[in-house]
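Bug #2210: C-alpha cell dump truncated for P2X purinoceptor?
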Amino acid sequence: MGQVAWKALFLSLFDYKTEKYVIAKNKKVGVLYRVVQLSILAYLVGWVFVVKKGYQDTDTSLQSSVITKLKGVAFTNTSELGERIWDVADYVIPPQGESVFFVMTNLIVTPNQRQAVCPESASIPDALCDKDMDCLEGEAVVAGNGVKTGRCLKDKGSTRGTCEILAWCPVEKRSKPKKPLLGSAENFTVYIKNSIRFPKFKFSKMNVLATDNESYLKTCRYSQEHPYCPIFVLGNIVRWAGGNFQEMASEGGVIGIQIEWNCDLDKAPSECNPHYSFSRLDNKSAETSISSGYNFRFAKYYRDAEGVDYRTLIKAYGIRFDVMVNGKAGKFNIIPTIINISSGLALMGAGAFFCDLVLLYLIKKSNFYRGKKYEEVKSNSRKSLSSPTLNGNQSPEQLGGL
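Reproduced locally. Full output below:
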C-alpha cells in the first residue's frame, strides 16, 4: 500500500495543469466582476496616473539658495537716543541677508555702561538682602548682572536692600516701551530671491519673473494680482500668517515663509512657479506664557579719551523670519509607467481571483460551479473520473438556469 502511494505521488510530478475557462451565466457574480474591474480601472487611471502622475520619474532632492534684502527707514525720538533715523544697517540682523533674518521692532537701551560696582536690580530675587552676610563676596548673582562684592546696599529708612555687584554699571533697565519703537517696520519690504535646482533632471529656475522691464522690481509687491513678484511687505506677511504686526512687534515672534516648488517638467518651464505660504511658528499666547516673544541682547562698545571702555547695551525685540524651501519635480519615464501598469494588471487578476472565490465557495450553487471548473482528464478516457463534465448536448441556457 505504501509503495502504491509513493508511486502515485511520483507520477503526479509529471501531471500537467492547464486553465479551464467556464462561462458562468450568473448575473450577480458577473455584475460584481464588472464593478471590481471598473473600480480598479478608475483607481489606476484617476488616482495613479492623473492625481499621482505615476507615469513620471520624480526628484525630491531640491537644491536651493535664498538671499534676502530689506528696504525701509524708521524715525524714533527717545530720552536715551534722542532723535534718530533707523535704516537697514541698524535694524536687520544679520546684515548680509540669509534664509533666516531678524527685524528689530522694539528695544530697551541702557547707555554708557562701564565696568564698576553698583547695586543689583531689585527685581532679581537672589540680589535681595538684609545684611552683608547675605551677599557672599565673589558669588555670581543667579539670573543677575554681575558678581557680589559682600556689601548689602540699603536706601535710607529701609530694612531691606540689594547686593552690591561688580558688573557693567548701571545695570540693564527692565522697563520696555508699551508701544514698539519701530512700529513703522510694518511698511518695510523684503526682497526674497530663491534659486532652485533639481539635479536629476538638470533643471534650474528662480522665483523672479523673467521680464525686460527694469522698473518691475521697484514697483511691484507680492499679491494675488502679482503672484510672481518676490517683494513682500512685512505687515502683509504677518497678517497672512494670522498675526497682528503691532502686537507681535512689541514682544517679538517667529514667522515661517514656505516656498513650495511642484514642477511638472513635461510642461513648459514657464509652468514651474513657486507657491508661497505663511505661518506663525512661535507661541501665540503672549498673555498667558512667560516664554512668548523673541528677543536677545547685543552691545556697541567704545572708549573715551581717558581709555575707559564703555558700551551701550541693547535688548532687541523683533520678528524673526525663517524662509523654508522644498519641492518636487516629475518627468515622464517609461520604467515607472510600466511598473504602474503592471501593478494595475495584477490588481485585475486579484479581482478575478476574488470573484472566483465568490462563485466557487460563497453562493448557493458553488458546488455545481466548482465541479465544472475542476476536472481530471486521462488520455485513455473521455469521461471525468472525479467530477461531472459538461455534456455536449447542454446548452449555455441550461447552464445559466442552474
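Output looks complete on our side. DSSP finds nine helices and 16 strands in the chain. Marking as cannot-reproduce; reopen if the truncation happens again.
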